């Protein structure tokens, strides 16, 4: 029977994942089975020269996963830029998998953004994410890729889901309207992995991270998430207060234009590249500052992803959800987050909130009980992670200052 037949039976190699793993010397040994937790100092994973494709390696999450895999000894990591491989082009994706003979896929590529971006581009968010996921997952299966990790998002859960949110709350109520198209695409990715596992016996699993931040984040003020947007706003206001026009101009070149309302609040005239002496710079933030959010540093997310890659398939079968939440299990208000960033950046001016702009979901806290029980926990505190993110952003103003940011 053809592999592409709808009635194709699961391939026999997959059945070995239902049983305890063989010894490291056995050829069928699980390539990412952990000896100890990947977060412990003496962590080591049994990794042969497996060919791992990271889709989205230039993004914040994908690049962190590449760093993590290299750190634990992976030497055959395959990456492609958007110019080299357009994941929206199905035939190009299928051709890539046919030629490269990939062993494992990490699907970190996605169209992402904050509230403003989701509100402004809902069609692009649902179309591009659905197409990327469908092309990569189906292309991987067509080329006999047995292992795949799909990265989703905490926005898959209902707007008013009980807190903290457990995996079983998926599809129990309506979604948050501001990012519903993106959430639906991510839910489709989870269900696609589930369906291929059920019909073809693959080992495709998913992780649902909470709000991520850290090195490599997107700082474009029209489509970034909350933490990178706040880091940039506070640093721009600090430079304005210090009269550092050169720093502001370099920031524009690297991270994109500064919206008119932000220019106004910091007294900056983008057309003449000057500061208005009578304006006292301040920071304006959307909403009331009252929503509570959970945040996770991207390096912890990368460690969790590698950890999940090494789990036995039985943890995602026999009535268990096919995905795992990844987070800290703790949340904080947007206002408190802004206060920490303000202090770390060193801005001494006023922060103003605009209640006319949407807050989004009132609270989003992940229940991380399942992944914690399997042996993973984050290594960085929230403030440690924020300090790292702020330092990474500010340090880039003193290195390669004229280079523009590339997505």
UniProtKB/TrEMBL annotation:
Low complexity bias spans: 26-42
Keywords: Isomerase, Multifunctional enzyme, NADP, Oxidoreductase
Enzyme Commission number(s): 1.1.1.271
Name of the featured protein: GDP-L-fucose synthase
Gene, per the UniProt record: fcl
Short name of any one Pfam family annotated for the protein: Epimerase
Annotated site residues (Important for catalytic activity) in this chain: 153, 155
GO molecular function, one term: isomerase activity
């Amino acid at each position: 029977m053809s592999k592409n037949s709808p009635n194709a039976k699961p391939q026999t190699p997959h059945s070995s994942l239902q049983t305890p793993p063989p010894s490291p010397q056995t050829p069928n040994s699980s390539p990412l089975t952990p000896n100890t937790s990947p977060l412990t100092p003496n962590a080591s994973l049994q990794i042969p020269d497996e060919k791992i494709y990271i889709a989205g390696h230039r993004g914040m999450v994908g690049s962190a996963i590449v760093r993590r895999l290299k750190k634990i000894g992976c030497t055959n990591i395959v990456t492609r830029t958007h110019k080299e491989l357009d994941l929206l082009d199905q035939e190009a994706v299928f051709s890539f998998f046919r030629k490269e003979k990939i062993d494992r896929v990490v699907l970190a590529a996605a169209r992402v953004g904050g509230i403003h971006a989701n509100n402004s581009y809902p069609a692009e968010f649902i179309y591009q994410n659905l197409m990327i996921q469908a092309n990569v997952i189906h292309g991987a299966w067509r080329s006999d890729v047995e292992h795949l990790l799909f990265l989703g998002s905490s926005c898959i859960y209902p707007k008013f889901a009980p807190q903290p949110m457990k995996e079983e709350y998926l599809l129990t109520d309506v979604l948050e309207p501001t990012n519903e198209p993106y959430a639906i695409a991510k839910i489709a990715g989870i269900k696609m992995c589930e369906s291929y596992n059920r019909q073809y016996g693959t080992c495709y699993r998913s992780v649902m991270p909470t709000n991520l931040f850290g090195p490599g984040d997107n700082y474009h003020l029209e489509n970034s998430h909350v933490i990178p947007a706040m880091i940039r706003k506070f640093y721009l206001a600090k430079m304005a207060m210090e009269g550092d026009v050169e720093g502001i101009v370099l920031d524009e070149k690297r991270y994109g234009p500064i919206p008119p309302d932000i220019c106004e609040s910091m007294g900056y005239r983008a057309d003449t590249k000057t500061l208005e002496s009578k304006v006292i710079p301040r920071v304006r933030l959307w909403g009331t500052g009252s929503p509570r959010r959970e945040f996770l540093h991207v390096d912890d997310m990368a460690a969790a992803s590698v950890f999940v890659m090494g789990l036995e398939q039985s943890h995602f079968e026999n009535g268990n959800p096919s995905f795992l939440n990844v987070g800290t299990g703790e949340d904080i208000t947007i206002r408190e987050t802004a206060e920490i960033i303000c202090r770390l950046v060193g801005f001494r001016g006023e922060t103003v909130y605009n209640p006319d702009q949407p807050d989004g979901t009132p609270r989003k806290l992940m229940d991380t009980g399942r992944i914690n029980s399997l042996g993973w926990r984050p290594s960085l505190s929230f403030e440690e992670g924020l300090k790292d993110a702020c330092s990474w952003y500010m340090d880039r103003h003193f290195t390669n200052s004229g280079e523009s940011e590339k997505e």
